[in-house]
Amino acid sequence: MLVIDGHLDLSLNALQWNRDLRQSAYTIRANEAGLPGKGRAKNTVALPEMRRGRIALCFATLLARNTGRKVAHMDYESQAQAYATAQGQLAYYRGLELDEQARIIADAESLRAHIAEWQAWEEADADQAATPPLGFVIAMEGADPIREPDQLAAWWDAGLRLLGPTHYGPGRYAGGTGTELGLTELGAPLLREMMRLGMALDMTHLSDQAFWEAANLYEGPLLASHNNCRALVPHQRQFSDEQLCFIIERNGVIGAAFDVWMLQPGFLRGESNQAVVIDTVIDHIDHICQLAGDSQHAAIGSDLDGGFGREQSPCDLDTIADFQQLPGKLAARGFSAGDIANILQGNWLRLLFGAWDS
Asked: Which of 60-74, 100-114, 165-179, 229-243 bottoms out in mean pLDDT, i.e. has the lowest?
């Protein structure tokens, strides 16, 4: 079954971690053997494995912070550096287009054509025919690279379609994970410009205060691209049932993340991942479906290789190609074929078409 992943930090891995994602995950692991650093030689995502996993489309991120929380290759001293880094990450996706490895999807017409091509490939002798190019919807995780709200139109013209105002720490537009800060003075103008352009709001990483302030201001399409359930893993990074129900009531979609830190209560980075399996992710998907009363709002937003590797992913996942285990695992939990299609692809498609067809 075709899969849509709502969150992959592909350009971060390619540029900041210096990985050639055209090579297989196993080749990248071999090349990184002996390198120091978390996640080295333990990657799970590369373009060949995305094709094997039938990841027809993903939300491909731009990520560069300017918060003062210094993290190498992620948090920069100045806004100009964050802007330049995100522009470079966008150029990387354009480079993959030139290599005919991928295509950037930015409107309903191109999305329909892209999905139709993948469906035709799947219905043909898929094991023999070459896969179509991978599809990327460009998303920004943390709006720090945007110099001012009125610059957002230029980012839209460049292909940006999904925007999360903040990441970890005190962002330029809103308080993020680990803070109790609301929207900054730039936050409300940014949300108004997003509504004018029709850019979807990603609620992921918003602090509780910023979440509800944004909820009261923003009236356009919204999502949580990679967010799990606080009821199952008590932590501010997850959303409460009240927050999840708000997104559901607004016809939004929540992508379940595969980061063990978001799946095991009290997990400390560096501990064993052996207590977490892919079925643990399905616990969060099921919780969202129970809150909604249907399967219309749960999806996949894996965040695989989001600054970590196999050591912080479910222990029974080797690479992203293992997403093809999901249909069987969801069926074993009582999900119907229609439910499974909604979760693996249909709900993200509905959100994108709803945003772009209006």
From this structure: 60-74
pTM for this predicted structure: 0.98
In which band, very low, low, confident or very high, does the pLDDT at 73 lie, cut at 50, 70 and 90?
A: confident
User: What are the DSSP calls for 6-52, one per residue?
Assistant: EEE-HHIIIIIS---TTS-HHHHHHHHTT--STTTT-----HHHHHH
20 token code pair: 């050639």
Q: How far apart are CA 270 and CA 261, in angstroms?
A: 10
Tokens of 161: 């379609």
Query: CB of 101 within 8 A of CB of 130?
Result: no
Give burial (CB, 10 Å; 0-12/13-18/19+) of 70. Answer: exposed
Pairing status of strand 102-104 against strand 298-300:
unpaired
Cα separation of 203 and 88, whole Å?
24
Listed in sequence order, the DSSP H helices in 76-147 are: 79-98, 108-123
The CA angle 51-261-234, to the nearest 5 degrees, is 130
Helix (H, G, I), strand (E, B) or coil at 293: coil
Token pair of 92, please?
A: 């990387």
Q: How far apart are CA 17 and CA 286, in angstroms?
A: 34
